[in-house]
Amino acid sequence: MIGREEALQLLQEKIQNINTQRHMLATEAIMQALAKKLDQDQETWGLCGLLHDIDLEQVGGDMQKHAAVAAEWLQEKLPEEAVQAIRAHNGENLGIERETELEHALAAAETLTGLVVAATLVLPSKKLTDLKVKSVTKRMKEPRFAASVCRDTIRECEKINMELSEFVELGIGAMRNISTELGL
User: Fold this and answer.
1) Could you give the residue ranges of the DSSP H alpha helices within 15-100?
2) What pTM value is reported for the model?
3) Model confidence over 131-184: pLDDT tens digits?
């Protein structure tokens, strides 16, 4: 299995868009926090989050290929369960049903990052330190806010035995820990 430094190098080599890089870092942070809470392998879960969108620029946003290409690239670099979770995070487009805890966690975590960032950017300060869990859970009920964020995918947190507010709190906390890297 590759280490974080090699994974970061791969990310910087394959992804030029700073916002995509930040999304991947945010997903890594949430996945590590989830792994710690759920008593799972923090390194594997973190790498899964860090590398889940590694192929986005290569596939040019073709969602019928996204994650399948990433899984191919990562086959020899990550454990099979992580490769499958990366593939499954785009399961809607690849015809894959998410089944494992890791698969649900990755899909929910990477989707939550979008809602958290959007909720932060509408704050006067635009700072994660000022974002409240209640603000994010309220925004979950507003389909026109961050309309591209699939609320049902975020709710997959329930499939890993976490209530929405607990999951949002964990996600915000994890992202706050790297707020400088996220520019928030």
Assistant:
1) 18-38, 42-51, 68-74, 80-88, 91-94
2) 0.97
3) 999 999 999 999 999 999 999 999 999 999 999 999 999 999 999 999 999 999
d(CA 184, CA 180): 6
What is the distance between the alpha carbons of residues 16 and 145, in angstroms, rounded to a whole number? Answer: 27
CA angle (170 as vertex; 101, 82 as ends), nearest 5:
30
How many domains does the chain fold into?
1
**Dihedral (Cα; 33, 38, 40, 46), 10-degree rounding:** -20
Nearest-angstrom CA–CA distance, 124 and 146: 17
77: which DSSP letter?
T
CATH number at residue 19: 1.10.3210
- Using a 10 angstrom Cβ sphere, with 0-12 exposed, 13-18 middle and 19 or more buried, the burial of residue 19 is exposed
Residue 167: give the domain boundaries.
Answer: 4-182
